[in-house]
Amino acid sequence: MTVLETRPDTTATLRFPAGFRWGTATAAYQIEGAAAEDGRTPSIWDTFSRTPGKVRNGDTGDIAADHYHRLSEDVALMRRLGVTDYRFSIAWPRVQPTGRGPAVQKGLDFYRRLTDELREAGIRPVATLYHWDLPQELEDAGGWPQRETAYRFAEYAGIAAEALGDRVATWTTLNEPWCAAFLGYGNGVHAPGRTSAVDALRAAHHFNLGHGLAVQALRAALPEPSEVSLTLNLHVVRAHSDAPEDVDAARRIDAVGNRVFLDPVFHGRLPQDLVADTAGVTDWSFVQDGDLRTASAPVDSLGINYYSPAEVAAGSSESPSPWAGAERHVRFVDLPGPRTAMDWPVDANGLHELLVRLRDELPGVPLVVTENGAAYDDYADPSGQVKDPERVAYLHAHLAAVRRAIEDGADVRGYFLWSLLDNFEWAYGYSKRFGIVHVDFATQRRTLKDSARWYADVIARGGLTA
Question: Which residues does the entry assign to the active site, renumbered to this chain (predicted)?
């Protein structure tokens, strides 16, 4: 199977730097299936999705896109698209089913096969250690609000690095710890479904600690040169007006949405305004001496996931909320303009805004857009084609924003489109499609959408048509 044919380059292009990494991304629970095969045990998402009322239509990831059995087919699709990199996640309960003790070799063998086939296809493997699938046994012991989970995560990181370090050059410790902490433990719309502001804040701290401990474990196990990273879904939060109370509302969300991770990981400190804002929730006594030094272990890059911005004003929002008490002072403002099938506003300027902010706040830290994409209600027409012009327009605008940020001095090294495949979209089940490859979940048939052909063309050109 060859790379898709592309049109002759007869137009000017908005070119990206030489060596720019063109990738796509997935997550284990969303695509793998094989939920009880080869020693894999339940994760918190298995438990959550099987709980009535938690996931739309009662959907689960038991089969998902059946990637576990269709690995070669999916790697061949990536090869056709011409991607240079593939970002996938390792399922913790497939590798270390109880979150403790030795690895299951059959689980590791799956990732050995995946990375070997990627390398044979000329695609660089990028591994994420945690994309939300905590082994259920660790959640039963208290989950991420408990300090012990951070140490278990570091042990697992070392196991994965020992097994795959000769195949994987780039390692990401955590994906979107904000979602895992504040949606999982704060307002309960994600697994494990708890609704406790203090548990959300405890989990956030232990994600930071676990990240730092995992960086240490990775550095100890990986050969040189290896890249160690972290991926955050940082929030672009704009004040509704220049009024002091609206500006303060934006500050509150920035503290609990962004700086709760940025400050410990990159500056070795807690955001003191967040500590003050949450004094009625916790005294932060779970932060022990040395934790912030551990959390701030140097990384080689920062991954950024971006989908849409938010606008806030003084007021109040519904509770339970993921904002750890900030909702008592903040009202989210509906934004005008087009929206995706997730009802998220489309605003590519937010991605430029975020990358330029990080250029200024984290000088010397290379950036990678590790997720960006959109869900739309696309489908295979009677001829078998999947036309998704809204997604193409979304992707074009956001890649143009990335290029503009590079021109403005942001050190952006790559772009990973979310997602390769239609998949299990967490609490939305199979009702939302983010993929550039359509999946018929009844037959598991894969069909390239127009956006896939468009992305292949972008990669072949090394940039966008003007």
Answer: 371
Question: Which DSSP string corresponds to 192-253?
Answer: T----HHHHHHHHHHHHHHHHHHHHHHHHHSPSS-EEEEEE----EEESSSSHHHHHHHHHH
Say which CATH number the domain at 404 has.
3.20.20.80
Q: Is 2 a member of any domain?
A: no
CA distance 56 to 63: 16
**Cα(224)–Cα(32) distance, rounded to whole angstroms?**
30
Is 8 inside a domain boundary?
Answer: no
Predicted local confidence at residue 1, as pLDDT: 47
Q: What is the 3-state secondary structure (H, E, C) of 310-362?
A: EEEEECCCCCCCCCCCHHHCEEEECCCCCECCCCCECCCHHHHHHHHHHHHHC
pLDDT value at position 3? 65
Copy the structure tokens of residue 424: 């299990």
C-alpha span between 181 and 205 (Å, rounded):
9
Q: Is the pTM of this model over 0.85?
A: yes
Pairing of strands 85-89, 124-130: parallel
CA distance linking residue 417 with residue 47, whole number of Å: 29
Tell me the three state secondary structure of residue 126: strand
* Residue numbers of the domain that contains 220: 13-465
**Catalytic site residues?**
371
Helices and strands in the chain, H and E counts: 16, 15
Is residue 4 assigned to a domain? Answer: no
Query: What integer pLDDT is reported at residue 8 of this predicted model?
Result: 44
Owner of token pair 């046994």: 137
Half-sphere exposure of residue 131, counting CA atoms within 13 Å on the CB side? 23
- Residue 235: Cβ within 10 Å count: 19
Give me the residues of the chain with pLDDT under 70, please. 1-3, 5-12
Q: Residue 93: name the closest of 84, 85, 83, 104 by CA.
A: 104
Structural domains of the chain, count:
1
Q: How far is CA 117 from CA 167, 404, 438, in A?
A: 10, 34, 22
Q: Would residue 6 count as lying in a domain?
A: no
What is the model's pLDDT at position 2? Answer: 56
